[in-house]
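I have been asked to look over a protein record a colleague put together. What it holds is a sequence and that sequence's fold in token form. Please read both lines and tell me whether the tokens look consistent with the sequence. I do not need a full report, just your reasoning and any doubts. This is what I was given:
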Amino acid sequence: MPSVYDLSAIKKPTNVTVNSDLIKKAKALDINMSAALEQKLIELIRQKQAAAWLESNQAAIANYNRHVEGHGAFADELRRF
């Protein structure tokens, strides 16, 4: 699966506001907060991009589904189930 961002881009320091108890517990559990944030951002970006793709292609998907309902799928005659 292709990456959702440029893996070679430089890292940039930034400020975020986080609940102090979460920070304390993450440090106690030796959680790399930068890595955890990056992983969550990747997940959120993928979800948002997938939702945007689905929304922008909704008409084409509906048209295809109508076509399949009326005419069947491309290889229906080859199915063995």
In short: The chain has one domain: 20-78. Residues 16 and 24 are 15 Å apart (CA to CA). The mean pLDDT is 93.
